[in-house]
């Protein structure tokens, strides 16, 4: 019964795909700040900061102003009184249920009253694709859900990288230090003091100090994986992107071959034994002329705070050992899990204008491939991402499966701030 359910989901999503693609503006220019980590995790907040009219509306709101001033007082008090209790300190930065209720109601009110905010959602947030999974919602609901995602993510980052709460994948995504050590406690308090008392206030947006604290915790913990290697279009993927413009995709059965990684569990090996096997399996599909491009996916995931980026090393192996031209290789150096292997590859297809109405192939070892083809994988995607990033189709052999990209993959997931 469960398997039938996911098959029905796949058919519905697949039938509506071409229509979905038409509704997304591929030429839309995203808002950017000085922090790429912020932009990739909190597009809504960056967009608000960049829109003067919207920022002024929020700063002039009595409700938001009350929340901002209350938070400022509370943070200042906790810096002075909490001494070395991180749990006590972080409470000042988190949004509680009462705050969230007030923020929701005020956003609803402002969406009725302020045309500038209505236009902002309609002309910026919606076409950005950053909240694509909410596209069926009204503009007001889309704004509320986008804000909810940001608020949950800030609260989550503060818990994980502030007091050491276990993330979903504790083995690779945890805080970098012993949170009980005097060193770390002192570091967090000094950073908090700097943000609150010494850093110039750029604005009085109600979320600003929580955002700054969240980003500082990621920075303190050296968790900048999401920003490394950018801009990919000008660096590792530059030659392949230029080549894509000259490819006749009609001459191939598939748009691309996605090779999944398998990270080493030590700090000496650049690739694991199974990772090398995955590469060879992908090369077999490529030399059979099934697709013009190879996508390799894997970030600094295994082991904890890995030295080597798996996709970078996979690309080197493809070039040095198998003589695959660099112009035929795209890398995704960010993915940390199988769910985001698929999602990030789809994001690149959309961004680089690889035909997304054409099937691609995902290749990995027998055990991993069996997992990707199992309905439980769809269940995991829905649980962790909130949507299915790609429709798994026909199995070609024990290590290769067809898949069709889904535009929902553009949706940001800052609950996983290392690869949102």
Structure description:
The chain contains 19 helices and six strands. Residues 1-23 have low confidence and may be disordered. The chain has a six-stranded mixed β-sheet, with helices on both faces. 53% of the residues lie in helices and 7% in strands. The chain has helices spanning 2-15, 17-22, 36-41, 43-50, 52-59, 62-81, 86-90, 97-113, 115-128, 139-163, 170-173, 182-198, 208-220, 238-244, 273-287, 310-320, 338-352, 366-372, 375-384, and strands spanning 257-260, 294-297, 329-332, 360-363, 390-397, 400-405.
What strand order characterises the main sheet? Answer: 3-2-1-4-6-5
Order of helices and strands: HHHHHHHHHHHHHHEHEHEHEHHEE
Overall body shape: globular
Mean pLDDT across all amino acids: 93
Strand content: 5-15%
Based on CA atoms alone, the radius of gyration comes out at 22 Å
Structural classification? alpha/beta
Share in helix: 40-55%
Tell me the quaternary state.
Answer: single chain
Number of helices: 19
Number of strands: 6
Cα(first) to Cα(last) distance is 32 Å
Pick out the low-confidence regions: 1-23
Largest sheet: 6 strands, mixed
Structure at a glance:
The protein is an alpha/beta fold.
Features:
alpha/beta, six-stranded mixed beta sheet, 19 helices, 6 strands, 53% helix, 7% strand, globular, disordered N terminus
């Amino acid at each position: 019964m469960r398997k039938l359910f996911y098959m029905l989901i796949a058919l519905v999503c697949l039938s509506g795909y071409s229509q979905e693609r038409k509704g997304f503006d591929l030429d839309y220019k995203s808002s950017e700040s000085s922090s790429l980590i912020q932009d990739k995790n909190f597009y809504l907040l960056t967009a608000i900061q960049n829109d003067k009219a919207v920022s002024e509306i929020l700063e002039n709101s009595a409700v938001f102003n009350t929340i901002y001033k209350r938070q400022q007082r509370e943070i200042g008090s906790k810096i002075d009184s909490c001494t070395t209790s991180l749990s006590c300190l972080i409470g000042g930065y988190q949004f509680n249920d009462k705050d969230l209720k007030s923020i929701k109601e005020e956003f609803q009110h402002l969406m009725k009253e302020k045309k500038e905010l209505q236009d902002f959602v309609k002309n910026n947030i919606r076409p950005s694709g950053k909240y694509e999974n909410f596209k069926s919602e009204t503009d007001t609901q889309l704004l509320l859900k986008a804000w909810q995602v940001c608020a949950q993510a800030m609260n989550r980052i503060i818990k994980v990288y502030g007091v050491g709460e276990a993330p979903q994948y504790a083995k690779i995504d945890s805080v970098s230090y012993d949170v009980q050590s005097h060193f770390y406690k002192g570091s967090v308090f000094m950073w908090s003091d700097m943000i609150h008392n010494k850093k110039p206030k750029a604005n009085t947006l109600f979320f600003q100090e929580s955002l700054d604290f969240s980003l500082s915790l990621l920075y303190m913990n050296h968790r900048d994986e999401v920003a490394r290697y950018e801009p990919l279009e000008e660096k590792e993927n530059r030659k392949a992107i230029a080549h894509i413009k000259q490819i006749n995709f009609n001459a191939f059965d598939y748009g691309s071959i996605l090779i999944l990684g398998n990270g080493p569990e030590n700090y000496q090996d650049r690739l694991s034994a199974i990772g090398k096997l995955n590469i060879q399996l992908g090369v077999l599909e490529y030399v059979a002329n099934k697709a013009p491009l190879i996508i390799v996916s894997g970030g600094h995931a295994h082991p904890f705070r890995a030295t080597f980026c798996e996709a970078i090393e996979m690309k080197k192996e493809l070039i040095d050992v198998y003589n695959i031209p660099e112009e035929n290789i795209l890398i995704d150096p960010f993915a940390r899990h199988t769910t985001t292997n698929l999602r990030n590859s789809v994001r690149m297809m959309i961004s680089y204008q690889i035909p997304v109405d054409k099937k691609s192939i995902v290749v990995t070892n027998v055990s991993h491939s069996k997992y990707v083809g199992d309905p439980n994988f769809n269940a995991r995607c829905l649980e962790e991402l909130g949507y299915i990033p790609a429709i798994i189709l026909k199995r070609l052999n024990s290590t290769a499966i067809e898949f069709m990209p889904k535009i929902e993959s553009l949706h940001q997931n800052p609950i996983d701030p290392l690869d949102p």
